[in-house]
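Researcher: Please predict.
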Amino acid sequence: MNNHIASIHNHPKNAFGPPSGKNFTIFSRSFEDYELVVGRDGLWILKAKGVFKNLISEVREASEVFYIMVVVHCESSHGDGGEIDKCNDRLYGDMLLKYINDKNINDIKLIRREYKNDK
């Protein structure tokens, strides 16, 4: 039988939508294939089966650096709280997507699916 195990992690409205460094603990769970991160503007799917511990630290460190860079950039370029949040989510998410998917190690994948806005 070919089962896939996933966990769902909800990021509330006042938190980053993309996966944070803490979400990458999935890499150390040998029984888990996917983590779904539900954010304000979309769903993030992290596929991470069979990743080694040294890569866990590397991705966490990169995500922390990206977070600091994004917060500094978005706060200096946007005055409105809502616009800062959108800037943070977009820029940080784009950086994570590029970093993780370009590495192409152990078949790690990060996918972003934005919610449809009918307004």
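Model: The beta strands are 6-10, 34-38, 42-47, 109-114.
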